[in-house]
Write a structure and sequence with these properties.
- The protein has about 350 residues and is an alpha+beta fold.
- The chain folds into 2 domains: about 90 residues, Malate/L-lactate/L-sulpholactate dehydrogenase, four-helix barrel (Hypothetical Oxidoreductase Yiak, Chain: A, domain 1); about 200 residues, 2-Layer Sandwich (Ribosomal Protein S8, Chain: A, domain 1).
- Helices cover about 40% and strands about 15% of the residues.
- It contains 11 helices and 12 strands.
- A 7-stranded mixed β-sheet has the order 2-3-4-11-5-6-7, sandwiched between helices.
- Helix 1 runs antiparallel to helix 2.
- It is globular and about 60 Å long.
- The two termini are about 10 Å apart.
- The mean pLDDT is about 95.
- The chain binds nicotinamide-adenine-dinucleotide (NAD).
Length: about 350
């Protein structure tokens, strides 16, 4: 299934709007999700809509919740998302943090208790487009622990993403490093399972801790776990995310008592910094330009077209998918059609939207 981003956005916006009764939020959420698909992150694209709609039905996602400022002290801002749509809450929280960074040269934002905030790169991009370096530590309180600690067999936490964004220079596009601290995001295991394909090495362990490439271990008993990326180093990063995003914000690190069915909460610590404070922005960006040229001049390995910088794969994906359409796997498409029917969108209307 290949569909244009425009048609896909219209279709999923209608589903979310009917399913949530909040058309304004639906517009923001659908744009964010289709943007994730365009960037090549299908794990955080429209495939999460069934999860959101189930959470609405279960009373776990509060469709009209508003962001609440808990503390506002100089450069520090603590906000509570009241389990509202993460795409709405995180955008508003980032807007407030950007305003703070304009005044103080730095902003430290602690966002707690938001429903799933999606692709963290979207929030890094907002800060970098406003002219700031930004670092984002995020933890996930999901209905199941899904990532095993290094050296362990049972999962103890979730895919805790990390992101750093640095504004574009005169000669290079924005640096956008945005990753799950597991080797693959859970959504990538879901996409592989839906497609019936294997996942890369070092991504999963079975219930006994043996490495496996079969994504079924995440969806069929006996359940296995995702592995942290980079062995003990990714494990350390995952713990930092739970501690800085979770414990520090008050939203909490992953603990069994915080597990609630159908609830996916993200907490985020974001630090925004004015690039002009030390050596001056001109020197900073000039040095990045020289550095990027130097790093990218490394001759590519066999089978590799070019050395890339973080953010380049997403830009390539976007160029391709904007030109040729967004691929949606069959299972995800079937789920979206089923939800369209469940929320009361008539077949004729679906056909008109998807063409
Ligand atoms: P990934 O492994 O595809 O990419 C990670 C980073 O590596 C990106 O910045 C990418 O630009 C860079 N990269 C990839 N290939 C590269 C190459 N060949 N050369 C240079 N750089 C390269 O990403 P992921 O870990 O699968 O994460 C996917 C998305 O999932 C992210 O957007 C993340 O924010 C999101 N996520 C969200 C949550 C949540 O709870 N909200 C949880 C986990 C992940």
């Amino acid at each position: 299934m290949l569909i244009s981003a425009k048609r896909l956005t219209e279709f999923v916006e209608a589903i979310i709007s009917k399913g949530s009764g909040n058309p304004q939020a639906a517009a923001q959420v659908s744009r964010h999700l289709v943007e994730a698909n365009l960037c090549g992150h299908d794990s955080h694209g429209v495939g999460v809509i069934p999860l959101y709609l189930e959470a609405i039905q279960e009373g776990q996602l509060h469709t009209d919740a508003k962001l609440e400022v808990v503390q506002d002290k100089g450069p520090f801002l603590q906000v509570d998302g009241n389990r509202g749509f993460g795409q709405v809450i995180a955008r508003q929280a980032m807007e407030l943090a950007i305003e703070k960074a304009r005044t103080n040269h730095i902003a430290v934002l602690s966002l707690r208790n938001s429903f799933h905030i999606g692709r963290i790169g979207a929030w890094g991009t907002m800060a970098a487009e406003a002219g700031f370096i930004s670092m984002h530590y995020v933890n996930v309180l999901s209905p199941n622990s899904i990532v095993a600690p290094f050296g362990g067999t049972e999962a103890r936490f979730a895919t805790n993403p990390y992101c750093t964004a640095i504004p574009a220079t005169d000669r290079h596009p924005m640096f956008l490093f945005d990753m799950a601290t597991s080797t693959i995001a859970m959504g990538k295991a879901r996409v592989a399972y839906n497609k019936g394909v294997e996942v890369p090495d070092n991504s999963l362990v079975d219930h006994e801790g043996n490495p496996t490439n079969d994504p079924a271990v995440m969806f069929e008993e006996p359940i296995g776990a995702l592995q942290t990326m980079g062995l003990h180093k990714g494990f350390g990063m995952a713990l930092i995310c739970d501690i800085l995003a979770g414990s520090f914000s008050g939203g909490g690190a992953f603990l069994p008592e915080r597990i609630v069915p159908s609830r996916v909460v993200n907490n985020m610590l974001a630090i925004l910094i004015d690039p002009n404070v030390f050596g001056g922005a001109e020197n900073f960006f000039g040095d990045i330009d020289n550095y990027a040229d130097w790093v990218k001049s490394s001759p590519p390995a066999t089978g590799v077209d070019e050395v890339m910088f973080p953010g380049d794969p997403e830009r390539k994906s976007r160029a391709d998918r904007e030109a040729n359409g967004v691929p949606i796997d069959d299972n995800t498409w079937a789920q979206l059609l089923a939800w369209a029917e469940a929320v009361g969108i008539e077949d004729g209307e679906v056909s008109r939207m998807i063409g």
